[in-house]
Design brief:
Blueprint lengths: L1 H13 L4 H32 L1 H25 L2 H11 L2 H26 L2 H8 L3 H16 L2 H14 L4 H24 L9 H23 L2 H7 L9 H32 L4 H37 L3 H28 L1 H5 L8 H38 L2 H26 L4 H25 L28
Helix pairs in contact: 2-3, 2-9, 2-13, 2-14, 3-5, 3-7, 3-8, 3-12, 4-5, 4-8, 4-13, 5-7, 5-8, 5-12, 6-7, 7-10, 8-10, 9-10, 12-17, 13-14, 13-16, 14-16, 16-18, 17-18
């Protein structure tokens, strides 16, 4: 029996659509998302060292900025699916054109974010925070909004590499940009090495500058000679109205789902605050601990979407399905180990948060935290299904279904019930967490059923028939200069 299972695992490891193929894609992407986590952790840590007002202002302002930005990040990053399907279909010229449409969409996002920045004052006045904190919130939010083009455009450019399975390049660029951000944080927040001491403004400027660096590196790589020749990364830079509409048609639902998902959880946290400071603190700690499991899953989900896109571009849906199940096996095993640790060793995760806290207060937070980690452990297994199967069908183009399900369940199962139990019924914190858990469980089950139904196998985001290539523009930028 053991030999039989061992042989099956060995065979699946090396075969097309097997474990090795998935891990080769997923591991660099997991490390990339880890770099993003480190960047935000260090940024918040430095601001905590600088002043309590700075860290207090950075959290709501940063969350609002990212929530709005997620609409455009989710859409621009969907260029990845177009690149993957064109790559699998053997249509290299269309890859360059698809990425350019993502860049044009980035301009729309940048204009929107700049316009929103002018409303920073009224927005943060509504929050009712202390005047000094409001001023810092406005500065931080405004600077991030003014630099919004660069992360959105970088998401589109990164798709050129991820869609072709060149994930190590993306990891390298992300690591470099993270290092730049950390160094600039150290210089511009505290005024070290002769730099100006700008505090929270320095943190925002460091974030924007690191985004510019990321954009510049991706642009340089995207436009190098071999890519210009093979993928038309300069020749097909013109706006392609039909392709742009296809990107918006399939990508915008992905962006809307990302945006509303962020908004739903932000509202959930706000409502949980009605149960008291200790309940809110325990909830924030539980979600922070959950990040340990969730962030690697983001990289895994991107890998699943890439594999599905490439295999459908090759018109090999059976192999795409096998790739998804390989990813599901590995992610479920990983999440099972993490979930077991949450239940069996809760102090391993909770104790670090109490090192500098008031002992009497943290005892109560700890009581909440132990129970909340059991919720996290339970829904983590379904979150694995959610990430894998949602990205599988999105990699085919089934983004509208994902958007509709996520939006409806978020409000009907999580946000509205949490509002009722916190504002009207005055039930316990655990009732609210029960609804949040039900939301994630239902997402996982519904996306699994949608995947099993198999409709995604007939979907494509790219053109179904051969097309007449547009007249090529000059191959190199220098040809026109």
């Amino acid at each position: 029996m053991n030999g039989g299972w061992g042989q099956k695992i060995t065979n699946r490891w090396a075969a097309p659509g097997g474990y090795r193929e998935f891990l080769m894609l997923a591991v660099p992407l997991i490390l990339s998302t880890g770099a993003w986590s480190i960047q935000h952790f260090v940024d918040r840590m430095f601001l905590t060292w600088y002043s309590s007002e700075a860290i207090a202002a950075s959290m709501p302002a940063g969350l609002l900025n990212f929530t709005l930005l997620s609409l455009f990040l989710g859409t621009a990053s969907y260029t990845n699916t177009f690149v993957a399907q064109y790559f699998g279909a053997g249509q290299p010229d269309r890859i360059g054109a698809a990425v350019w449409q993502g860049l044009y969409f980035s301009l729309i996002g940048a204009v929107f974010m700049v316009l929103v920045s002018f409303a920073a004052g009224p927005i943060f006045r509504l929050a009712g925070h202390a005047p000094a904190v409001q001023q810092l919130e406005r500065e931080y939010f405004t600077i991030l909004c003014l630099g919004a083009f660069f992360p959105i455009a970088s998401a589109a450019l990164a798709s050129f590499f991820t869609g072709r399975s060149d994930v190590w390049t993306v990891m390298t660029v992300n690591f470099f940009a993270t290092a730049v951000n950390i160094v600039l944080d150290y210089l511009l927040i505290f005024g070290n090495a002769g730099a100006p001491k700008w505090g929270i403004r320095g943190a925002a400027i460091a974030t924007v500058l690191s985004g510019i660096v990321s954009f510049a590196v991706y642009s340089g790589l995207f436009l190098k000679k071999s890519f210009r020749q093979k993928f038309g990364t300069w020749r097909f830079r013109r706006m392609d109205a039909a392709l742009f509409r296809r990107l918006v048609h399939f990508g915008l639902p992905n962006g809307v789902q990302f945006f509303l998902d962020m908004l739903g959880f932000a509202l959930f946290i706000i409502l949980v605050g009605r149960f008291g400071t200790l309940a809110l603190a325990a909830t924030n700690i539980a979600f922070n601990i959950n990040t340990l499991a969730f962030m690697p899953m983001i990289g895994s989900g991107i890998a699943v979407a890439i594999l599905v896109g490439q295999r459908l571009g090759e018109n090999r849906p059976g192999l795409a399905e096998r790739s998804v199940w390989s990813a599901a096996h590995l992610t479920f095993c990983y999440m099972s180990v993490v979930a077991a640790a949450y239940v069996v060793l809760p102090d391993l995760f909770l104790t670090p948060f109490g090192k500098q806290a008031d002992p009497e207060t943290f005892v109560q937070i700890h009581r909440y935290g132990v129970v909340l980690l059991r919720f996290v452990a339970f829904y983590s297994l379904f979150d694995a299904m959610n990430i894998v199967f949602a990205n599988a069908i999105k990699g085919a183009g089934d983004t509208r279904f994902v958007m509709k399900v996520a939006v409806l369940l978020s409000w009907l199962v999580m946000v509205i019930p949490t509002y009722l139990v916190s504002v009207w019924l005055h039930w316990s914190l655990f009732a609210a967490w029960g609804f949040a858990t039900a939301y994630i469980v239902l997402l996982g089950i519904i996306f699994l059923l949608r995947f099993l139904r198999g409709k995604w196998k007939e979907m494509r985001v790219i053109e179904e028939q051969a097309f007449a290539a547009p007249v090529a523009l000059p191959d190199a930028p220098s040809a026109e200069l």
